[in-house]
Design brief:
By secondary structure, the protein is an alpha+beta fold. The protein has three domains: about 180 residues; about 80 residues, Sandwich (Immunoglobulin-like); about 110 residues, PH-domain like (Roll). Helices cover about 50% and strands about 20% of the residues. The chain contains nine helices and 17 strands. Strands 10, 11, 12, 13, 14, 15, 16 and 17 form an eight-stranded antiparallel beta sheet that branches. β8 and β9 form a beta hairpin. α5 runs antiparallel to α6 and α5 packs antiparallel against α7. The longest helix is centred in the middle third of the chain and has 82 residues. GO terms for molecular function: actin binding.
């Protein structure tokens, strides 16, 4: 028998352990679990997939991302913005065409004035002749200045038109680019959707047929690559080009706005110069704002004008085309406060003096007051509206009392009262009249003439011009609903 020493056995065991531990790498730190199947076969328990999410979760996540991509790649908002920019460009071009004003009248007037001064210079002598020559030189300088202003205005109009055309072309190009990008994005998104759908079908087939798992796994990897390609498509379609074009369009709109403001300023200067020339040849003119809530006053424009106190005056209301001319009953003073019926119409005053008739016309239609329409709509929503007034006249006679009364304008009638005492209460009828006061005075724009019935009339002074005009408009609307046209008097006030 051979005897083995303990030292040799221990060293051999140490060498075998070191060799095995150096060459072998264990996947886990515990023993695998087995089960015995039929015929004593060893079956390994299935391992859980702890490397990542399941394929079904990956498909659902990619589908959600593609849906979000489709929403983000939608360019309907951008297309609508470009349509608005194109419409704005067309509107600017049309406005530039409409602002083209003929400048021949100014030169004709200056030429007539110069010819008249030349004829007058031949008749004068001495100091008067020098004054006439000085006037001729001033007219010539004014003609040169007018020509320069017109040239500047034409140049500005040309630049505005050029910018509008450029903006229109840029909007069309941007719209084409958006449509092209939209078609490409939609096509690629539909392709990606088809890929995801096939991916889902393959997963369902894999769950039904476990035998074909290897083949299905290979198809899944191909589908994953296609989904990643869809992600790349999403990154490619970021709207950077469209954003750059939007910034450029904003800059162009700002330039057009500045040019338009400058062009309007030049136009105002031209109109002012033209009015100054016309004022030299006019005898009378209007002073005051040509809007609702103000007063227009006739005044002489030259020292040789006959005094208005010795003249006969009559105001008229003329349509924009000049075909209709209505007399304003009772408007025979030098002052007239426009009422709501005058909005959109031209006012004309005829002055008869020394057998000659002089016609003075507003430069344009009477404009409405700011915010009056919204205020009237608010009042019309109520069943009745109350206004504080002071009675200035009763039946054409001045009323000495200045106590405050209440004018209640309802849907069926108008009532004037003070506390419990009722002055007048009448329903809307053909004998009722209501209009702006057509007398002279500082409160003409705040006063209204009201005739409840024949034989009884009042001149009422409101707290403000806005209250007076709103009361007239509300009353006329309620009267119209009752088939009554509420207007002014047929005879003079």
């Amino acid at each position: 028998m051979t005897k083995i020493s303990p030292e040799i056995e221990e060293s051999m065991l140490r060498e075998s352990i070191l060799a095995v531990s150096a060459d072998v790498s264990f996947a886990s730190d515990h023993f695998p679990k087995y089960k015995l199947g039929p015929d004593n076969q060893i079956l390994e328990e299935p391992k859980g997939d702890s490397d990542g999410p399941s394929l079904k979760e990956v498909v659902e996540r990619e589908t959600a991302q593609l849906s979000e991509q489709h929403k983000r790649l939608s360019v309907r908002d951008l297309a609508s913005k470009f349509d608005k920019n194109l419409a704005a460009a067309a509107k600017l071009a049309d406005e530039a065409k409409l602002r083209e004003v003929a400048s021949l009248e100014g030169h004709v007037l200056l030429k007539k004035l110069r010819d008249a001064l030349e004829a007058l210079r031949g008749r004068m002598a001495g100091r008067n002749k020098e004054d006439v020559e000085q006037a001729i030189s001033m007219v010539e300088a004014l003609a040169v200045k007018l020509t320069q202003k017109e040239g500047e205005l034409i140049q500005e109009k040309f630049e505005v038109k050029k910018l509008a055309n450029f903006l229109k072309q840029a909007s069309e190009d941007a719209k084409k680019l958006v449509n092209q990008e939209k078609s490409f994005a939609c096509a690629e998104i539909e392709s990606a959707r088809a890929v995801v759908q096939r991916f889902g079908e393959a997963l369902e087939e894999q769950e039904k047929n476990p035998e074909n798992s290897q083949k299905t796994q290979q198809e899944v990897e191909e589908f994953v690559e296609e989904v990643q390609e869809a992600r790349r498509i999403k990154l490619m379609h970021q709207p950077t080009k469209v954003m750059d074009m939007e910034h450029e369009l904003r800059a162009l709109r700002a330039q057009i706005r500045e040019k338009s403001i400058f062009s309007l300023k030049l136009q105002k200067e031209l109109v002012t110069n033209k009015k100054a020339e016309e004022n030299k040849s006019r005898v009378y003119g209007f002073h005051g704002s040509e809007t609702l809530g103000s007063c227009l006053r006739l005044q002489p424009c030259s020292d040789n004008a006959p005094p208005l106190s010795k003249s006969s005056i009559q105001w008229y209301r003329v349509s924009l085309d000049g075909n209709q001319k209505d007399i304003i009953s009772g408007a025979t003073k030098t002052m007239y406060a426009p009422e709501p019926l005058d909005v959109g119409r031209i006012l004309q005053a005829e002055v008869l003096t020394n057998g000659q008739k002089v016609i003075v016309t507003t430069s344009g239609p009477i404009g409405s007051a700011t915010g009056l329409g919204g205020y009237v709509e608010t009042l019309l929503r109520k069943s009745s509206s109350d206004f504080n007034v002071v009675i200035s006249q009763i039946n054409g006679q001045n009323h000495p009392s200045h106590s405050t009364h209440s004018l209640n304008v309802g849907k069926m009638r108008i009532k004037l009262c003070r506390g419990w005492i009722t002055k007048s209460r009448e329903i809307y009828s053909t004998s009722m009249l209501l209009c702006g006061a057509r007398g002279d005075g500082n409160t003409a724009a705040k006063s209204a003439f009201w005739q409840p019935r024949k034989g009884v009339s009042y001149v009422l002074t409101f707290e403000s011009e806005r209250e007076r005009n709103a009361a007239i408009m509300v009353a006329r609307k309620h009267a119209f609903d009752c088939s009554v046209m509420l207007g002014g008097p047929d005879d003079q006030m």
